[in-house]
Amino acid sequence: MNHNIFLIGFMGSGKSHWGHIWALEHGYTFYDLDTEIEKAFEMPVDEIFEKHGEDKFREMERYHLRKFEKKKKYLLSCGGGTPCFFDNLDWMKQHGEIIYLKASPEYILDRVMDETAKRPLLKEVNPAELLFFIQKKLKEREPVYLKANHILEVEGLQNDSLNFLKET
Fold it and tell me: What does the DSSP assignment read for the chain?
C-alpha cells in the first residue's frame, strides 16, 4: 500500500478509532482532520461552530484538507461532513483512496448518545429526536459517502480490514 487513505463516514462510525489501528498496522502516519483544525484554532470543534459558525468551520476544514497535498503515506480521518462540502470529495479522490465506514443509524446513535455536547450538529437536538435526526442527516449525506472508492460495513471491521488494499 503506497497511497494515501481518507476515511469518511458519519460521526460515530469509528473513523478515528480504526484510523489509528490501521495506520499502525500498515506503517502510515495517522491524522485526524478535526484535531488538525482544533490545533490551528486552539479550540475544540464545538467551540469553533459556536463562535464562528458552520460556514467558517467548513472553510477551515477545506483549507486544512488541502495542506495534505504534499504529504505522503498518511491515513486521514475526516469529519462527517468533510466530503459533502466544496470539492473536497473530488480532491480526496485525486490524492488517495477513499474508504467509507458505513454504519446503521442505530449503531451511530449508540456511539454518540453520550457525546452530544461535544458534537456540534447534535448539541441542540432533543434526545428523544436523536435517532430521527441521525437518520435524516445520514440520508442527506449517504449519496456523497457512496462515491468512495471502497465501502466497509463498520460492524464487521477488524485490524486487518484494510489488507485488501495491498493488492491495489
Answer: --S-EEEE-STTSSHHHHHHHHHHHHTPEEEEHHHHHHHHHTS-HHHHHHHHHHHHHHHHHHHHHHTTTT--SEEEEPPTTGGGSTTHHHHHHHHSEEEEEE--HHHHHHHHGGGGGG-TTTTTS-GGGHHHHHHHHHHHHHHHHTTSSEEEEGGG--TTTTGGGGG-
| Assigned C-alpha cell, 6 | 481518507
For the chain, the domain total comes to: 1
What is the helix (H) or strand (E) element at residue 151, kind and residue range? strand 150-153
Neighbours of 102 (CB within 10 A): 20
pTM: 0.95
CATH (domain of 106)? 3.40.50.300
What's the confidence (pLDDT) of residue 2? Answer: 61
The pLDDT tens digits for 22-35 are 999 999 999 999 99
- Within a domain: residue 31? yes
What is the distance in angstroms between the CA of the first residue and the CA of the last residue of the chain? Answer: 7
Residue 63 in domain: yes
